[in-house]
Amino acid sequence: MGEFQPPSSPLPTPVFTPPQSSRHVPPPSETPAPPPTEATTPSPTPSSPTQSISSTTFPLPKLRLEIRDLNHKGAPIFLTAVPASNALQKSIQDVLKLLYVSPTTKTSTVPPTRSVTLILRSMPGVAYTTGTELDAEHKEIHFSLDYIQNSITAPRREHEIMGVLTHEMVHCYQYDAFGTCPGGLIEGVADWVRLHAGLSPPHWKKEASGKWDAGYQHTGYFLEYLEQRFGRGLVRRLNEKLRIEKYQEKRFWTELCGRPVELLWADYGKSFKKEKGRNEEEGKEGEGRNEDEECVMVEKEDTTIPTKKGFHAEPKSTSTNPRVT
């Protein structure tokens, strides 16, 4: 990037702690529904985002599918759009490969999630993840059949379903600083993973206004900026710090990036303005080129031979064969 990178503290030696309690972010974390009518231009995603996903294979937990109402019109839409077992397996592998190095690396401590149950049912909203009544190592993803039926256009069904599943699967495998991590950061990590899995929806856009921890794609794009600035693996290191210590904002970000998060957010805002300015300049240059091409066309038309009804440009035939009637 050609930008000075402040030294960050070395990654602490992994401390193997007993399994922590279930992540609680009341109310249960929900994937927000995209605006139904808003027409926005999506921000450019990282070039070839799926290239950041390694070929390492992690062991899978027990996977279950529960459909509460097979007569619901959303049920066959889901089953037709994605093969359920493959969809769950792929979303887990993408999450683990982005948040952890490998199942054998000592610096990768994957949470001991023993099972994930996908529950399709009628409910408001989009989706949320929670622990089961059994214990925190058994997770449930609740996905709205109403949303699947009414809010996803046919061409985007597979992409959107996989995006929601991937976001929610992050909540089955991320750390939360023993329940002290801000909810906005938890949701931002989930959407950062969705972004890198190549599953960002068209309504997402990059913004640098408001607070850094507003969550979801707002925070996800901020994390992507940090990943590009401080090097690949920044979000992995962030997740590891959330595993071994409670969240104290100033200390957390200074140790991770060498600067308080307020300054990092300000840096992101400046970078965003520069990027936006470059995009606008490129757009103006493109418009200028189009105008030049139109002027050339006018000059060609001015040289045509007038007819009785005025100037008329006769089209030239590109065929080398005589016309057959």
TrEMBL record:
Composition bias type Pro residues, residue spans: 7-17, 25-47
Superkingdom to which the source organism belongs: Eukaryota
Ranges annotated as biased composition (Polar residues): 316-325
Ranges annotated as biased composition (Basic and acidic residues): 275-289
Stretch list, region Disordered: 1-58, 275-325
Biased composition regions of type Low complexity, renumbered to the chain: 48-57
Protein name: BSP-domain-containing protein
Organism: Hymenoscyphus albidus
Upper taxonomic lineage: Eukaryota, Fungi, Dikarya, Ascomycota, Pezizomycotina
